[in-house]
Amino acid sequence: MSRRWAGGHAASVLCVASAGGEDGLLASGAEGGEVTVWTPDGLPLAQLRLAAREDVTCTAFSPTAPGLLYAAHGETVSVLDARRLKGALEELRGVGEDEINAVSVNETGTLLATADDSGAVRVVDLQAGRVSRTLRKHANICSSVAFRPQRPQSLVSAGLDMQVMLWNLQKARPVWTYSLQRAAEEDGEPQQRAGQLFNPPLAHCVSVASCGNVLACAAEDGHVHLARVGAGSRHERQGAIKAHSQGAAQAHFLSFLPHPYWLATGGNDCAVALWDLGEEPLVAAEGKGRGKLKAPHRKNKAKAKCQAARDAEAEEEKRREGELSEEASGANPGAWRATAEPKIKFSHEDKVNWVCPALLRGQPSLLVADQSPILTAYSLAGL
Questions:
Q1: What's the first-to-final CA gap in the chain, in angstroms?
Q2: How far is CA 267 from CA 104, 146, 270, 352, 354, in A?
Q3: Which segment of 68-72, 261-265, 307-311, 331-335 scores lowest on mean pLDDT?
Q4: CA separation (Å) from 312 to 210, 231, 306, 369?
Q5: How much is the pLDDT for 301?
Q6: Alpha-carbon distance 104 to 95, whole Å?
Q7: Going by C-beta distance under 8 Å and a sequence separation of 6 or more, which residues neighbour residue 74?
Q8: CA distances, 90 to each of 70, 235, 252 (Å)
Q9: For residues 375 and 137, what is the distance between their CA atoms, to the nearest angstrom?
Q10: Per residue in 276-325, pLDDT tens?
Q11: Residue 171's closest CA among 326, 312, 327, 328?
Q12: pLDDT band at 195 (very low <50, low <70, confident <90, very high)
């Protein structure tokens, strides 16, 4: 079942974000500087056109102050109050070296990361309102960035150089680099064995599950590439699912279903799919013994387990400081090909620009933006 959300934009919608929670607000950005805040019922609550009239390429809510909204356009991030959308509270100008493609806010709401066309990842101290660190390693456009849940000083980036990188903000170089091109060649597809990448795995979108250790990256080869981070931040395992017949544009984990390994994807084949990766080998070990998320006492156990894992990881990081060379970390870990089939697949009417998981009045849903000014909300009822 789907519903169309209209009346919020006059131009193509490029991005969507959810503030979280059953009654949380949603925000979308479009071409020409348009920003719209929506109610969970699909009604436009407020609209704003940013003065620069640059395309709004990404929106993100603060996890600690859900009314605080960040909107990226050009080399700037505008700080907005989603409840009173009258104008920017602050303009973080020049935080991108080139056009910003993606932003992510860490779980403490203290840091914002940008990914831009120069290939750089820039980390902004939100209290000081300035760039505190610039991470340079991508050889092409950096298309996506995501902070790791439960690890506010660690993030993942992905780019059109076909690389996924894990960063610790205490270091100036990646902890490890995962080459999607190498993975595709080793996977044994004929055109890739011959060295002819007709659909090269350009990385478009990266997401991290709420456990903080399972990554998904949507790529131009139609695959969603997966990786697991092990003890000491090691690149422990990798794999892929053939998610789309054309380029995979979006991949986002859902945090509000019975376990955290549900993944939503969208592609240039005009398809939107939902995957249950909970039993796949790459994540099965990570989730072993996690139980249902509905029981509060199990949540507390899970938090304790996660804290213990973080403490162990911190100790391992100290031991390995300076020892883990980038080249050694690039060694191919255990690879695996997923057997998962989508639990749900929608045939959308246009190429997908953005997929946003959201709880709409308690109803698990996916909001999809495409080449039009209209959003589509798909219900995931019954899962």
A1: 13
A2: 21, 20, 6, 6, 9
A3: 307-311
A4: 18, 7, 10, 41
A5: 43
A6: 13
A7: 52, 54, 96, 99, 100
A8: 10, 38, 28
A9: 35
A10: 999 888 887 665 534 333 333 334 444 444 555 555 555 555 444 444 43
A11: 326
A12: very low
Q: What are phi and psi of 102, to 5 degrees?
A: -155, 150
Q: Where are the beta strands (DSSP E) in 198-297?
A: 203-208, 214-219, 223-229, 235-242, 248-253, 262-267, 271-276
Place of tokens 């019922």: 41
Per DSSP, the residues of 20-79 read -STT--EEEEEGGGEEEEE-TTS-EEEEEE-TT---EEEEEE-SSSTTEEEEEETTEEEE
* Tokens matching residue 204: 């478009």
Q: What does the block give as tokens for 269?
A: 């084949």
Q: What is the pTM of this model?
A: 0.86
Report how far residue 238's alpha carbon sits from residue 324's, in angstroms, rounded to the nearest whole number: 19
- State how far the alpha carbon of 110 is from the alpha carbons of 104, 127, 146, 308, in Å: 11, 7, 14, 23
* Contact of 10 with 34, CB cutoff 8 Å: yes
Contacts of 305 (CB under 8 A, 6+ apart): none
Distance CA 333, CA 338 (A): 15
**C-alpha separations of 103 from 135, 267, 370 in Å:** 14, 20, 19
Q: Decide: 84 and 56 in contact? Cβ < 8 Å.
A: no
Alpha carbons within 13 angstroms on the beta-carbon side of residue 380 total 30
> Any idea how long the chain is?
383
Q: Under a CB-based contact definition with an 8 Å cutoff, are residues 14 and 369 in contact?
A: yes
Report the pLDDT value the prediction gives residue 156, as an integer from 0 to 100: 98
Query: Cβ contacts of residue 339 below 8 Å, gap of 6+?
Result: 280
Candidates 207, 159, 163, 206; CA nearest to 181 is 163
Task: Dig out the tokens for 126 from the structure.
Answer: 């939100």
Amino acid at 197: L
